[in-house]
Amino acid sequence: MKIEKQLRKYIMPNVFAMLGTSCYILADTFFISVAQGADGITALNLILPIYGLIFAVGAMIGVGAATRYALHKALDKKDSNLYFSNAIIWDLIVSLIFVGLGIFCPDLVLKAMGADARILEIGTIYLRIALCFAPCFILNFVFTSFVRNDGSPKIAMAATLLSSLFNILFDYVLMFPLKLGMTGAALATGLSPILSMAICMTHYLSKRNTIRFCMMIPSIRMLLDSCKLGIVAFVGELASGITTLAFNYLLLGLAGNIAVAAYGVIANLALVGTAIFNGVSQGLQPLASEAYGRRDKEAQERIYKHSLLIGFILALILVVIVWFQAENCVKIFNSENSKVMREYGVFGIRIYFLGFFLASVNIIRAGFLSATGCASKSAMIAVMRGIVVIVLFAFIFSRFFGMTGVWIAYPATEFFTLLLTSRKPKT
Question: Which one, 47, 109, 208, 364, has least CB within 10 Å?
Answer without folding.
Answer: 208
